[in-house]
Amino acid sequence: MAFELVAEQSALDRLLEQIAGQSPVAIDTEAASFHRYHDRIYLIQLSTAEQTWVIDPLGVEDLSGFGSLLADPEVESIFHDADYDLRLFTKHYDFAARNLFDTRITAQLLGLPSIGLAALLQTHFGISPDKRFQRADWSIRPLTTGMLEYAAGDTSHLVELRNILRQELVDAGRLSWAEEEFRILEETRWEPAEADPRVTFLKLKGARALERRGLAILRELYAWREETASTLDRASFRVMGNEVLLALAAKPVHDLDALGRVRGVGREILARRGEEILAAIERGLAVPDAELPRFERGPRRVVDPDFDARVDRLKLRRNAAAERLGLQPGVLCPNAILEGIARLQPGSVAEMVAVPGMRDWQREAIGAELLAE
Q1: C-alpha distances in angstroms, 88 versus 30, 42, 124, 134, 151?
Q2: pLDDT confidence tier of residue 199, bands split at 50, 70 and 90
Q3: How many domains does the chain have?
Q4: C-alpha dihedral over 359, 361, 364, 370, to 10 degrees?
Q5: What percent of the chain lies above the pLDDT cut of 90?
Q6: Fewest 10 Å CB contacts: which of 109, 208, 346, 359?
Q7: Does 207 reside within a domain?
Q8: Is the separation of the CB atoms in 55 and 103 below 8 Å?
Q9: Exposed/middle/buried for 280, CB within 10 Å: 0-12, 13-18, 19+?
Q10: Cα distance between residue 63 and residue 60, in whole Å
Q11: What is the distance between the alpha carbons of residues 273 and 259, in angstroms, rounded to a whole number?
Q12: Sign of dihedral through CA atoms 212, 218, 220, 222?
């Protein structure tokens, strides 16, 4: 895989000058959420139709020139599944993208059976990416030649793939569908998830099986695990897995010997953090009965047979249209939009503009079918 590594500011400046005015360009990033607690961009891949570069953002002082490229409405930026890339760009650099083309969205709107990049590269070019690096730690330095070649492969064929898929959109009469989705994608921004460990512990799979005392212990262990992971900048599960937290919450231990016998508690964590873990357990055991956490009951759903019947009819019509168009039903029109239609009960396709989340292309493609009696 031919590529040029850009690992210093002067090289990046030359690159941006070299490709000024060229369009389209293909872009991808590599992060390290499988290894790090605080995710960020550790590599940026950039390709034109003729050449590929791998940019090391840890080696340059100023990426603003790249941000300007991304925001240039005259330069089409090609991604495959841009959502997370764009979120990280806005989170860490306040970069916003314009004039996007997303090959994953395109593949969905064409009804292709497999929409992953590896599948598309295999189908169109007979290329099989090396799976060894799918979960590589891109935060390490130096990166191996194999890792860099793998990263370069993510964009080196994207321009050609875009050309193929775009023509298929034109042939299918769906280019306007994709362009609407791309415009919406341009507004993607980083939205912090609920981060309070005093609340998010309840979302762990298996937490509902615990008694309230166990929930109190789980809350303390989870808070300890997240704080430790943040301090170490290590993925949470690499500090302690959820199954170990749940096991300790269900059957708390009180000394290091017992803790060391719990499956999943490694020697390193026992030696370095054992006392902290025991202290978290004791905090959970000390919570007064009146203050033990519980799962709050959600609002009871009001049964509305007429509404449910309307949704069911809409699903049948949507599913029939999806089969006719060769699309997955959820791609053509998600259930949430069908529920919005059933709730609003528009009298015409024009009135569907008030349905939250419904696209123009969806109204044009199947609006009349959904309203048919």
Answers
A1: 10, 11, 29, 19, 17
A2: confident
A3: 3
A4: -50
A5: 91
A6: 208
A7: yes
A8: no
A9: buried
A10: 7
A11: 11
A12: negative
pTM (2 d.p.):
0.90
**Number of neighbours of residue 170 by Cβ within 10 angstroms:** 12
Q: Are residues 165 and 91 in the same domain?
A: yes
Instruction: Read off the amino acid at residue 152.
Output: A
- Give the tokens for residue 363: 């109204």
For the stretch 273-324, pLDDT in tens is: 999 999 999 999 999 999 999 998 877 778 899 999 999 999 999 999 999 9
Q: CB–CB of 89/40 below 8 Å?
A: no
CATH number at residue 70: 3.30.420.10
From 291, 319, 344, give the residue that closes a domain.
291
Q: What is the pLDDT of residues 248-284, one digit of tens each?
A: 999 999 999 999 999 999 899 999 999 999 999 999 9
Rounded Cα distance, 301 and 322, in Å:
29
Q: How far apart are CA 179 and CA 163, in angstroms?
A: 14
Candidates 112, 69, 103; CA nearest to 185 is 103
**Six token digits for residue 308:** 């449910």
- How many angstroms separate the CA atoms of 125 and 75, rounded? 25
Does the residue 297 lie in any domain?
no
Q: Is the dihedral of CA 146, 149, 153, 154 positive or negative?
A: positive
What is residue 132's DSSP assignment?
G
